[in-house]
Amino acid sequence: MTIRLFAGSVLAWLYQAVIGKLPSRTLRHAFLKSWLGGFGDGSGVQSDCRFLNGRHVYFGERSVINFGSLFDGRSYEIRVGNDVSIGPEASLLTLGHDPQSREFADQGGDIVIGDHVWIGYRVIVLPGVTIGEGAVVGAGAVVTRDVEPFTIVAGNPAKKIGEREFSMDYELNYSPWLG
Q1: Is the pTM of this model over 0.85?
Q2: Are the C-beta atoms of 88 and 109 separated by less than 8 Å?
Q3: Mind listing the pLDDT tens digit for each residue in 137-146?
Q4: Annotated active-site positions, please?
Q5: 5-43: pLDDT as tens digits
Q6: Within 13 Å, how many C-alpha atoms sit on residue 171's CB side?
């Protein structure tokens, strides 16, 4: 094990076991700003979120990450745009295994989430997926392929169920006192 891998593992453990559970947004955010690949102004991460290799996770400005979400940046990047709302206990997974591999080989890809995306409660986003600007992913959906901009998807696997207005100009500002 390299010193870099060891240090990253210790930082991840420290966040998951201690800092990520603190009721102080100020302390959590100070740690995340120094640990994550990017942490945009006005963004907020609620308690009990987990990060696997925070260096590969990037949050844009004013994005809201609700409690208990998982960001798997082990081998690939997760890039979240501006004014994105990610619901509680969502899982963004960049790495899995090739089901056809005799050696159980890794298989994965980056996850890219556009501006003004709304991801519901307990959504699972699988490796290599891009969710376009203004899209909505319904609660409990499993996103296995790209979602077009301003599309509303739901289900397992996620399928188009509607469209969203094409003009999004809101800015998120959600920072609960003990969140």
Answers
A1: yes
A2: no
A3: 999 999 999 9
A4: 97
A5: 888 888 889 999 999 998 888 899 999 999 999 999 999
A6: 8
